[in-house]
Amino acid sequence: MIHLQMIGALAGKEFRDRLRNRWALVAALLFTVFSMAIAYFGGAQQGQVGLRSVEVTVTSLVSLAIYLVPLMALLLGYDAIVGERERGSLDLLLALPITRLELLLGKYLGLAAALLAASFAGFSIVGVLVYRAFAWAGLFHYLGFMLSSALLGLAFLSLAMLLSVVARERARASGVAMVLWFGFVLVFDLLLLGLLVASSGQLGAWLSGDVLGYVLLLNPTDVFRILNMFSMEDMRGLYGLASVVPDALMRPGVLTAAMLGWIVAPLLLAAWKFRSSSSC
Predict the structure, then answer these.
(1) pLDDT tier at 45 (50, 70, 90 boundaries)?
(2) What keywords tag this UniProt record (predicted)?
C-alpha cells in the first residue's frame, strides 16, 4: 500500500530544497530571458522584430524548448538517487518507514514541481505578450505549447530518474545524462536523415508507408516538435519532416499519449529496478 502522505512530505522537501539552493530561480530566469529574446527578436534576420503571429512565436519557442527543457530536466534529476547513495544518506532514508517506490515517487514529484514552476514562470511573461497581441485565440495555442513543454520536461525527468537508479557513480551518471541529451536532441534526427541520404532513399523505400513517420515516436523531442509545429496546417509545408509524418500522427490525442508513454515507461522501469535492487 502506497502512503500518499509520505510521498507528499518527500516531494515537499525536495521542492523546498530546490527553492533553497536557488535552482528554480536560476532556471526560471533562463527560461524568461531566452524565451523573451527568441519570441521578440526571432524575426530580426527577416528585418522584423516583435510578435508577428502566434504560429511563428510558438515555432521559435519550440526550438528553445527542445534544447533547454530536456537539459534542465536531466541536470535536475540525474543524481536524485545516485547522489543519495554516494552521500550515504540513502541507507538512512530507507531505514525510515518508507518503501523504495514511495521514495522514488516523492523525489520525482518534488523535482517535477520545481521544473514545472521554473518553466511556467519563465514562459508566462511571453504568454502575457501573446494575449495582448493575439487575444484569447493566440493564448489558447500558446497554452498548448506550455503544456506540451511540461510533458517534454517530465519525460526527460523520468529518463533522468531511471539513469539515477541504474548508475552507481554520480560522475558517470552526469556523463550519461549529457549523452542522452546529445542523442535525443541532436544526433537522432541527424542520424536518421544521414541514413536516408547515404542510402540514396533506399532506407526510405524499405521503411515503406508511414513507418518512417512512426520512427519519430522513438524520440520525445520529435513528438514534442510534431505536436507543436505540424499540428498547425499552415506551418506543415515549412518543414521537411512534414512529408513523412502520417495523418494519424497529426491527432493531438495520439501525440499526447505518446508523450505520456515517455513519462510513464521510464518511471515504471526505474521503480522496478529500484525495488528489485538488493543493495543501496
Answers:
(1) low
(2) Membrane, Transmembrane, Transmembrane helix
